[in-house]
Fold:
Amino acid sequence: MNRLFPAGPLMALALAVLCGAASCKDKVPYSGSPANGEKGGPWSRSAPPGGPAEPLPVAVILTPAGSILATSRSGGRDLDIRKIPRHVFVRDDGALVTFKVQRNKRGKAGPKARESEFVSLVMGEGDQDQRELFPGKGHDRPDLKALGAIDPDMASLFYHRESVQPLGISGPLFSWIISIEGFLGGMHPYAEKRLLVVDAETGDPVDLRPRFKHRKPDREGRRGLGSEECVTRFAGVAPIDWIGGNATWVSVFTHEFEVCRGRTRMVKVPPPADPLPRERAREVRMARGVFEIPDEGVKVAGVADWRVAPDAEVAILLMSLGLNDRLSPPWRLGKAGKTDRRTREMRLWFKGMEAPVVISRVTRVLSVQFLNDHPDPKSVLAAFAAID
Structure:
């Protein structure tokens, strides 16, 4: 076999010579980021006198898969990215409210039956699971083995499956779509869709229709449905953050007839009279995929979605897949209700960086909670350190 270097001690000697000649450097978090003390590159701001600064929370980014915590030292130095398999909300006192979907396979009704799956949506503080939001009280689940024993001839056809998917997030309001489907005998399979909106500040499910006062979001939403649409059962109304972090209100409808069971439609409706309070960043420009913060000299092309901190010192950018790539809003998914599962590059920019850096790939950004100006950053980091 041909070798580039001789084996044994000679190889070690050759590598040492090469490394010494090229001045090999320690590994750094991202390609192109200089080591401490060097100038230039995204980490161009120097650490404060007296040694390196303590890490501080920058932002928590919520995606369909969970949360991504970004922490950093002065000017974006030592940027650290941590993925968390929960959806997290940070309160003003630094405490965390978490939402976790637990999946539990419950076996089969018979040897040849489909696998069934039961799920739970659990809310807690930190790593302590405290409350089951779904299924909750009064939700009966089938005993598959007992049903299979009662009717062994049909047992191979029996199944029951549940799922909980995030619809959207806006401020402390987290919205979930709950799906239940299965077959346990009878003429047809069954399917059900529900909308669950939870206020993370209080931990309680909420009905947002009273915010509309004299308006009827169900009637307004139905005007946006086709005349032959069979997805007409009103499930509720919810706000979701969309491109640029703008809160968009949608009326959610589920199937009314068996022919379209399991389908969901969303229709955009005007916001209520008292919309959610939102602090806007100073001037930010976005045109034809080019994102700009003029006061900071930031200009990035090929951006599909973005979020900017109110002080405009932090930005999260979701990059497009090409010149013609556009995000499809949930209220324009069509009758099939299919979502775009392609992942896109996500970048973070912190004041002091020359350019944004890649931190992950995600399907979309549900919401971003900026933490760079949080009143109690130490409590925030301590709370995150306690969760898995």
Notes: The chain has two domains: 56-86+278-385, 96-269. The helical segments are 9-22, 144-150, 217-222, 377-385.
